[in-house]
Design a protein that fits this description.
Elements (H helix, E strand, L loop, with lengths): L1 E6 L5 H14 L4 E6 L5 H4 L15 H8 L19 H5 L1 E3 L2 E5 L13 H15 L4 E6 L8 H4 L4 E6 L3 H16 L5 E8 L2 H10 L4 E7 L2 H8 L9 H22 L1
Helix pairs in contact: 1-10, 3-5
């Protein structure tokens, strides 16, 4: 199963990605957690030791030059768009139990609109992860779905858009739905987060009347306290953990129905 998670900045994409990663891992799956958000926090949320010391793929200068054929930071030059990437997970992923983690770093574009060498390597790796790996892949993206191309979108089993009670969050979600339609992504679900009241739940449902809701994660101060104390959020909030386990069951059930 390949799951891409998007939404407005700050709505809780990384919280959902970390809790889903842990739930799949605890259920016996081999999980590849991919942090593709420039504001990389997935390692810390998952409780990986020394998250600041994890080098993003886009900063592996020697590897980029070797595989792509051009130095990082260059643009307008010729380089390979289909570099060898199938060994990068084993070489560079951090591991904790059944979860392996890769931090992608920023995907940049050169002045001509073409991908720069580091972007080409990251894009090729994402394509490999979404189209060829047998693991459960959970992709924590920045706002929008710019990391996905028409090719890689074919490998996404579920696009989950996280929203919070608020107009800007809803507007961002609607833009993501439009982009997803352009990429022919049909399996889209919404998760509400930071829900204080039933009125906020109703606001999100009424604002997005034609989408599938996978669940609603209640607001919990324990998540903020864990972040302030630099603790993993995956064990901080029983209400959030309980709701994400329900979302996990829905995802598994839907996947089984598709196979029948």
């Amino acid at each position: 199963m390949k799951i891409a998670i998007s939404g407005k900045g700050g709505v809780g994409k990384t919280l959902l990605a970390s809790l889903l990663s842990k739930t799949f891992a605890e259920s016996g799956y081999s999980v590849l957690a991919i942090d593709a958000d420039p504001d990389a926090n997935l390692a810390a949320n998952l409780g990986f030791p020394d998250p600041d010391k994890i080098t993003p793929i886009s900063e592996l200068s020697d590897v980029i030059e070797e595989r792509v054929g051009a130095k990082p930071g260059t643009s307008g030059s010729y380089f390979r768009l289909n570099p060898k990437v199938d060994d990068l997970v084993d070489k560079y992923a951090s591991r904790q139990g059944n979860i392996r983690l890769l931090v992608m770093g920023r995907i940049k574009r050169g002045g001509t609109g073409c991908y720069c060498p580091e972007g080409a390597l990251v894009q090729a790796l994402l394509s490999h992860l979404l189209l060829q790996r047998e693991d459960v892949v959970i992709l924590d993206m920045e706002a929008g779905i710019e990391h996905l191309t028409r090719g890689t979108a074919r490998g996404v089993d579920r696009l989950i858009v996280v929203v919070e009670p608020g107009r800007r969050s809803i507007e961002t979600a609607q833009r993501i739905f439009e982009l997803a339609q352009d990429l022919n992504i049909k399996a889209i679900g919404v998760v509400g987060n930071k829900i204080h009241t039933q009125e906020q739940n109703d606001f999100i449902r009424n604002s997005l009347p034609s989408v599938e809701f996978l669940g609603f994660i209640p607001y919990d101060e324990a998540i903020i306290d864990a972040d302030l104390a630099n603790r993993s959020v995956t064990e901080s909030s029983l209400p959030a953990i309980t709701e994400v386990k329900k979302i996990y069951q829905t995802l598994i059930s839907d996947a089984k129905k598709k196979k029948q």
